[in-house]
Write a structure and sequence with these properties.
Helices cover about 45% and strands about 20% of the residues. It has helices spanning about 1-15, 20-50, 80-85, 125, 140-145, 155-160, 240-260, 260-265, 275-280, 285-315, 315-325, 330-365, 380-405, 410-420, 425-460, 485-500, 550-555, 580-585, and strands at about 60-65, 90-105, 110-120, 135, 150-155, 170-175, 180-185, 200-205, 230-235, 265-275, 475, 510, 520-525, 540-545, 555-560, 575-580, 595-600, 610-615, 630-635, 645. The strands form three sheets. The chain has a six-stranded mixed beta barrel with strand order 2-3-8-5-7-6.
Amino acid sequence: MQELLADFRYATRTLWKNPGFTLVAVLALALGTGATTAIFSVVDAVLLRPLPYSTADRLVGVLHYDSKRGPESAALSYPDFRDFRSQNHTLDHMAVYHPDSWPMLAPGKEPVNVHMAVVSADLFPMLAVHPTAGRTFTAAEDEDTAGPMKAILSDYAWRKLFGGDQAILGKTVLLRQQPYTIIGIMPRGFQFPIQSEPTDLWTTFGYSPDLRKTSPESTPMGIQRGAHFLDFAATLKPGVSTDQARADLAVINTRLAKQFRNSNQYREVQVLPMLDHMVAQLRPVLLLLLGAVGCVLLIACANVANLLLARATTRSRELAIRTALGAGRARLVRQILTESVLLSLLGGVFGMLLAAWGTALLAHYGPQDVPRLADARLNVEVFVFALAMSLVTGLVFGAVPALRAANSSPGEALKDGSRGSTEGLRHNKARSILVIAEVALALMLLSSAGLLIRSLDRLNHTNAGYDTANVLTGTFDFPESRYPDAKLVQALDSLEAKLSALPNVIAASDVVVLPLAGDDMSTGIDFQGKPVSSADRPITRVNIAAPNYFRAMGTPLLAGRDFNSRDVDKAPEVVIVNQAFVQQFFPNENPIGKRVRPGFGHGGGEPPMREIVGVVASVQQDRIGKKSLPEVFMPRGQFPNTSTAVVV
């Protein structure tokens, strides 16, 4: 230990006497260490940290997805959830949930928009969480579509919106102009689903407008088996594996596919640990980023190793004299490694400062749809990682000069030093290898960055099928108690007429799902005169739009007509299809006048055949520019109770 302390004191004096070398080496290591630590803090928060629930080891996400589009299309309908819940033998607690945003008005408060989730009653028992005050939902309240509506507050919303007043229990607030009684307050820090914006409030499906019949003529979308819009989570029974649960649910899924061909024909089921389910699409991206900054750290190590090798040239006489005075090779190696480790620790200290700044920037300005990104911080795990990385990098870049010094000949060093000569070709070999390695790594990173920039530029200049310039979108809430189906249609028509009359407004309309919104719907499709077996039944996207939607979006109408005011509930059923639909199902044919049956229709019964009256250009339907998928548009006038996004 005394010799080690002596080595550290000597290394400190040596580095202090060479401030230029020390500053350059520490800055290079600080940049590499800081970038790597910042990205690792995100990886730790998003990928590695366990979920904050006591049942996290048994918590799974169930994917019910369209096999033709892959797991990214996973969404469940409420009738399917009821069947999975009643028929399975491997799951303990099961819950579905749907994040949303509703306007809330509390007595004596200003109206606010709250982030909320519609959930099934078993969610809280599934997570083994109990309210700090009040109670959670009962199983009966899942199906009680007529009784008084209830809601549960998060601790965050309780403190922020109501000042932590316990008297809020039993009070009534207005959500979407509907009265909801507050029955519970959840513990501090509890959040589900885990998302960028904390959930303020939960209500159950019995009180959801998606399931609740608000007028005699309404047919809520949520009770339709083809309305896939829910996320599904569950806990495994003791001793049950994810593979056993998947096999159990697959049997039920096959049964449902045969029984409900229109909506379930190509649905597949998968069961994943909940954390894997949450980060499945993020894991490759984050690991790629970690690998990229790891390469930056390797380049920094190669730079510092080259600096040490160059500096070793000036120290060859010193090392030779120490050897001549009796210093063994092990002692010389330890001395040089001590200097390199000290350098790396100094770089690690400044790197941690850079990492703290970088982590804060990533948490604040990073993508908002990355779960737990806001929780990224320099905790104990990240500190241990940074310390270990600093020690390892010190050993890595110090190894080459240390071994070279150990294998050098004292006599040759003294002769070379006495003549003032430079290193020969043999001594330059190690430095040449390091230069080649760091240039190769830098070239790889630059090439990758160039390809990413080129891809981004191509995406920005891709014809998306709509014109994003000067297009405004927004959502409006129409309370069901004041706007039953007929009044909702009148309100939307009146709103769009007033918007269209504004100066410089070309068109105003509404649609259920905007492009790139991530809430797309899909369904099976049948063709009149072209019977297909259940195994061959194709899948298409489906959307609901009002007249002038395509004009407002700048999507070209290629053939036929747009929807108009006569396309209402009692009128002949019509659809408009996109160009990808025509290319796949009617190649070299005129599709106008053909009749198709989307498996998405009125109520839960057999939907009607619909006439194709128009063809529009295909739009880009995802953020990474994949091939456009077939899509069918149905007129909003025939689905008046659907929620909409307004386009101007």
